Amino acid sequence: MRKAFICPTKYVQGEDEIRNLGYFVKTFGSSALLIAHPDDVSRVKEKLLITAKEYQISFVESGFKGECSRQEVARLQELAKEKGCHCTIGLGGGKAIDTAKCVAAGEALIIVPTIAATDAPTSHSAVLYTPDGAFDDYAYFKQSPSVILIDTTVIAQAPSRFLVSGMGDALSTYFEARATAASCSNVNAGLPCGFREGCCGPAKGTNTAMALASLCYQTLMEDGEKAKTACDCNQVTPALENIIETNILLSGLGFESAGLGGAHAIHDGLTIFEGTHKYFHGEKVAFGTLAQLVLENAPSKEIEEVLDFCLKIGLPVCLEDIGVDQFTAEELMEAANKACIPEESIHAMPFPVTPQSVAAAIITADRIGKNFKEKSRCGK
């Protein structure tokens, strides 16, 4: 049996680490295309100036438009070529990071998250959206980023909603990995890379990846609430450091090398509802996780543990929590059909899945979440 595991070349996490960014740029050359939202650049401007001066490198600012779309990627690739950039930096949140991956296409890539809102930084994949924010497609590259550089001081200064969203994304990691292992499905780490015929190919997950996915869930349960409190206070604590690592490294390696399942596919389906577009990826994935647990008829105790965790840290537990207040039966089936297209990860579940069963799981998860939230309010 062929198995595969993929990971970045280097992962560095610590306080004020952006001051060392120039060192890593220098390993590629003297200039880097900086893909970042202007607000994120402003947040770390002083550190960027310090590292540029110390290591004698320059940053070419890109005027990033804020959406990882095919049009934006093409524009930035042309800019990098025009300016002669030696490497690409994705600095900021998931959209800037995924855009940088697409621009770099697997070469000379440095990722600098300023929030811990998704598990995107470590992976060799990206999510493309349409210019108006709807899901478009997945993209895969021949290798993971060269460097992941995480400044925990910067992440601690960001609104805690970003950290909570990252925990929502990480929450799905173990359950999707468990489903993938049970069905013996292929994982993203083994997808054909296109670099050389026969160099990759379909592969199953490793025991190592499953262990990381399990540790991901365990750490969320142990440190998630404490980390949110620390982030609310803009303080770096051991719990916050653990959750940053969980959101970015454990979840990133776990989803890519242990597999995706129903949660992310249901997230993709729910993007047909315009109301969901103002919510973060991880917030929607959290509800997708609940829907997956209903879909697989998970034990009530397990579902209640997930619901309790979500309520404690402020993650969605029902559709209205992600902006879906009203919908028709036809709209629900449209979302379910989108979640079940042939290339979606929902087919890694260890049983046949149909749009009808997905729609039923979404409706049931919504009702369970509403009831649990009401009971919690009443202290029952």
TrEMBL record:
It comes from the Bacteria. The keyword Zinc applies. SUPFAM superfamilies: Dehydroquinate synthase-like. Glycerol binds at D119, D169, H264, H281. InterPro entries: ADH_Fe/GldA, ADH_Fe_CS, Glycerol_DH. Binds 1 zinc ion per subunit. NCBIfam families: PRK09423.1 (NF006941). Belongs to the iron-containing alcohol dehydrogenase family. This is Glycerol dehydrogenase. It comes from Robinsoniella peoriensis. The gene is dhaD_1.
